[in-house]
Hints:
By secondary structure, the protein is of the alpha/beta class. Helix content is about 45%, strand content about 15%. It has nine helices and eight strands. Strands 4-3-2-5-6-7 form a six-stranded parallel β-sheet, sandwiched between helices.
Amino acid sequence: MDAFQAVLFDCDGVLVDSEPITNGVLHAMLVEHGWDLSAQECWDLFVGHTVRSRRELIEQHTGQPWSEEWLTEFMRRRNLALQQDLQVIDGAIDAVTHLHRHSQGRIAVASGADRFKVEMMLAQVGLLPFFAGRVFSGHEMPRSKPHPDVYLAAARHLGVDPVRCLVVEDSVTGVQAGVAAGATVWGYAVLGQSKDLMTAGAERVFTNMAVLHQLTFT
């Protein structure tokens, strides 16, 4: 197995099981806003993307102009739901603990989500101490995923060439971002999207976090 110098994690769907919660809130609010779509359609259209990046699509299907107040309300309701129901991905705590120790701390989170959400979720499941000072948000970059900016920023902060980084992602958009950064990307797939992740450029797809215990570092 290849040796790496750093591991860069996505957050939603990789470290925390947040996407069904967030998607549930978003689906409800889009229906309230006038878009009659199913929960699965909402998932397919929005997972891996920021809500803001789908602004034109939302306007098109709701027939209403984009509103920052609507987005703020979505984030408020999303955060409340996450605080009530969020669970850590099975095996993630053991994997992160192991990698943090064996990589001498060269791990980071590179998420497309806003910083408040990411740090809130990591703190809630006990993972934030492992990533203190190494959380990167696509909202703070010139471009978010599928562009590589957030992964390049994380690698630069760690002082590691992106080519020597392993990126762990669960969405096509995220895999594309990791590949564009020049990193090796592994896809965490538990919802049957293995083929899509491989097509997007993932070198390997896995379903059990214990696989990460096998990594070696240079």
